[in-house]
Design a protein that fits this description.
By secondary structure, the chain is α+β, with helices and mostly antiparallel strands. Helices cover about 20% and strands about 40% of the residues.
Length: about 140
């Protein structure tokens, strides 16, 4: 009789333990869409570990007028396979800008640069032959 009682109690404890474990598995399930990813920078690398894209927040720096900006700026860079920037987007307290590079292999930069500054906005086009056109 004692063995039957012991077996019944042990079975009951196993059943309670099973129910507790099953309830915990249910509560750990999917929790909906993830929240916001926060950080001071983001780098995306290719299969060789080379940085191909960057999103960074820059610390405050002197402005063109010599004042310290209080906000810093933010830059998005997309790189060629050799690490040189192909696309740059930037924003700061004194304006924003964008540059599109034409050729990854040349030492001299060629491409388009667009600046929207508080003082003066401009578009600068630099050709492979070194000819520069500026619209202000």
């Amino acid at each position: 009789m004692k063995i039957q009682r012991f077996a019944a109690v042990l079975t009951l404890l196993n059943l309670v333990l099973l129910l507790v474990l099953l309830s915990q598995i249910h509560s750990v399930g999917a929790q909906g869409t993830p929240g916001v990813l926060r950080g001071r920078g983001l780098e995306i690398v290719d299969e060789r570990g080379k940085v191909r894209a960057q999103l960074i927040v820059q610390p405050p720096a002197p402005t063109a007028e010599g004042h310290m900006d209080t906000e810093g700026g933010v830059i998005l860079r997309l790189m060629f396979t050799n690490g040189r920037p192909a696309v740059k987007l930037g924003a700061g307290v004194d304006g924003s800008g964008m540059s599109l590079a034409g050729d990854a292999e040349r030492r001299e930069w060629d491409g388009i640069q667009i600046l929207a500054k508080t003082q003066e906005s401009s578009i600068k086009i630099t050709n492979k032959d070194g000819r520069v056109q500026v619209v202000k």
